[in-house]
């Protein structure tokens, strides 16, 4: 499996970066970027996920930002699957619950700034 992965994705470190980077081509389109990982094994997993996303969806780097409602659904799924203290889990779930009644939930993540945040949450 690892040998097959190495044929599809090039993982490397840039000279002035502590992170591993990936580089691969899908259907003639080249994808490259940082894995955000400093360990080779974790970087390989991230690169594998990026490759799978590119093969499945065709657009690895979407030009449109995610809506907060979409992100919150993925976040709550992640929260259920990860190991965190129960108080932390309740805190995050309550925060998502409080946001449900506000217009901020339908905004794109890139639109939410500290200037816009205060009036939306009142």
Layout of SSEs?
Elements: H1 2-8, E1 10-13, E2 20-26, E3 29-34, H2 40-57, H3 68-81, H4 86-99, H5 114-120
Antiparallel strand pairs: 1-2, 2-3
Helix pairs in contact: 3-4
Please report the distance between the alpha carbons of the first and last residues: 52 Å
Return the average pLDDT rounded to an integer: 83
Low-confidence stretches: none
The run of helices and strands is HEEEHHHH
| Count of discrete structural domains | 2
Output the strand order for the largest sheet: 1-2-3
Shape: globular
Q: Roughly how much helix do the residues carry, as a percent range? A: 40-55%
Main sheet summary: 3 strands, antiparallel
Strand content: 5-15%
Number of helices: 5
Task: Describe what this molecule looks like in 3D.
The chain has 122 residues and is of the alpha+beta class. The protein has 2 domains: 2-57; 68-120, no CATH class. Helices cover 49% and strands 14% of the residues. The protein has 5 helices and 3 strands. The chain has helices at residues 2-8, 40-57, 68-81, 86-99, 114-120, and strands spanning 10-13, 20-26, 29-34. A 3-stranded antiparallel beta sheet has the order 1-2-3. Helix 3 runs antiparallel to helix 4. The longest helix is centred in the middle third of the chain and has 18 residues, at 40-57. The radius of gyration is 18 Å and the shape is globular. The termini are far apart. 7% of the residues are buried.
């Amino acid at each position: 499996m690892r040998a097959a992965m190495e044929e599809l994705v090039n993982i490397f470190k840039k000279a002035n970066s502590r992170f591993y980077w990936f580089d691969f081509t899908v259907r003639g389109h080249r994808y490259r970027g940082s894995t955000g990982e400093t360990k080779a094994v974790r970087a390989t997993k991230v690169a594998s996920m990026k490759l799978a996303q590119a093969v499945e969806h065709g657009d690895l780097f979407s030009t449109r930002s995610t809506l907060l409602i979409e992100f919150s659904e993925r976040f709550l799924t992640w929260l259920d699957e990860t190991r965190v203290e129960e108080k932390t889990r309740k805190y995050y779930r309550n925060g998502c619950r409080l946001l449900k009644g506000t217009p901020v939930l339908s905004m794109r993540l890139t639109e939410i700034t500290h200037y816009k945040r205060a009036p939306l949450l009142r």
